[in-house]
Amino acid sequence: MKSILSISNFLFLFCLLTFIILTSSCKLSIDDSFTNPRIKLGKVRITGKITDETKTEPKHTIVMRIGFIHPITLETIGKEIETDSLGNYSIEIETETNPAIGGITTEVNPYKTIYIELMQDEEQVLNLCYTKENEIKVTKKFKSEFTENDMLMGNSFMTEALTYGWRPEIPQLYDRSADVYLQYREKNIDERVAIVSRDTLISNKFKSFLENEVRLICHRGFVFNPKKMMEMNYLDIHPEASWLPDTLNITPPSREYYRFMKNLNLNSSLQLCSPEFKELQEFILLNDTLNLPSIKNTPIPTWQNTIKERMADLIGFEDGLYYDILTANAYALQLNMEVIPLSNVQKENIHTYFKGGEIEKMLLRQNEKIEKKAESMEPLKIQDFTGIDADLLLKDIVEKNKGKIIIVDFWATWCGPCIMALKETNSLELSIKKEDVAHVYLTDESSPKELWNKRIKEVGGQHYYLKNEIWRQLMKKYSFNGIPSYLIFDRSGEIKHHFSGYPGSTKMAEIISMI
After folding, report:
1. pLDDT tens-digit profile of 56-69?
2. What is the SS3 assignment for 145-182?
């Protein structure tokens, strides 16, 4: 018997938090439009003012967050800053493409993402006003191909498309073949994309971006792992069941199932603009069915020939910049997930192939960061707990961390927002000593054990891989309906806080520092 989150809970969390992180990507070209950016390491500076008319006190700080990804080194970037008491702010960030696409949220309305185009080597001014009518106005913006409607309405269209089709009459798919499941999902995805296509309020370029974004998000969320989704389908068809029966036999997809990737046009620069690009690339590189080899010390042309033999018929092309990006991403997985710096042989291979270009600069820069991280990160400890009693587990956690503030993080390998958040909790700026805080991470059997073993290397800290029964007890005990979720203990072992959803670095640091 094993448990799994219901599809409705999973998709609610997936769609709610996807909007916090936006990304960028690129293609070698002289055209620097957001639909065709260039690979270039550089800095973006944004200044401006945020006005909140909903507050009676005119002078107060506002926490704002800018999110995007680095598509070459596969980093999720979330920069959080506070305005001054008058609402003024200034932030400088590094991007791997020019331009890049990012998203801004603030504590005034954390669920409303404002899309922005990030241009390197020029200062950009963006002023926002949150009105008494709970609307957002752009009172001043820098030169951009985004219209004001693109910036403010894109989030709404994305939400509408991603939440479309949450009908109670879900077809029974768990006992059908993966191909039948794919046919249903592809039709459903086309219907979602059509919602964006029909819109007349946003620019045609931005509409193309959103159409592609919806298609990628839905494929990653619904299609790339049909076995998990069909297990969730079983629980939706049988709402009385909390467990999957041992007799349920869902056949994993064959290699040919992944021919749907031809429809994703992975060699397109527009495709590479997607916020989902990072998660997609990681899935492709780690997928058991595709079975792509790690790059290790293999010369890049040799590795790429192997990849092309295994991938070309599935993605629909044998040449293109995509293979160079996938190569860089393979090195990035070693750096980020395994926290293993580049070997001398790898550095030589990178230099021989990329010849000192932008991708080489990015990989070497990331390597320096990982070398420093490896020296300072908290040692990894895999904690053994075989019982099925939630109270005994919590007692075990407290006993092992006496006298410390304990952050217990509920997460899963398939939860992108969880991975982003657990990295941030490791680098919080606290008013207490780092050694006085213990980081404990809990996951259950919905996270594949092999992938979990890889993921935890980049995190460090104490990790428990729990039986589904004890996970269910904990979720019920603290009324957690999704992840990431948190328990925070004080130094005496008492629970002071429990909540779902990462509140942001500023708020999280404040919660911990005040215990």
Report:
1. 776 789 999 999 98
2. CCCHHHHHHHHHHHHHHHHCCCCCCCCCCCCCCHHHHH
Strand, coil or helix: what is 325?
Answer: helix
- Give me the DSSP letters along 12-47: HHHHHHHTT-------SSS--STTS-EEEEEEEEEE
Distance CA 472, CA 175 (A): 25
User: Confidence class of residue 45 from pLDDT cuts 50, 70 and 90?
Assistant: very high
pTM: 0.85
Pairwise CA distance, residues 371 & 373, whole Å:
5
Three-state secondary structure call for residue 463: strand
Find tokens 């499941």 and name the residue. Answer: 181
Report DSSP state, residue 457: G
Owner of token pair 């997930």:
337
Name the nearest CA neighbour of 106 among 179, 181, 51, 170: 51
In whole angstroms, how large is the CA radius of gyration of the chain?
23
Question: Token pair for residue 315?
Answer: 């993605």
Is the torsion defined by CA of 422, 423, 424, 426 positive or negative? positive
Each residue of 216-242: pLDDT tens digit? 999 988 899 898 888 888 988 888 877
Q: How far apart are CA 225 and CA 83, in angstroms?
A: 41
- The runs of H, that is alpha helices, within 64-170 are 148-163
Determine the Cα–Cα distance for residues 384 and 465; give it in Å rounded to an integer.
Answer: 8
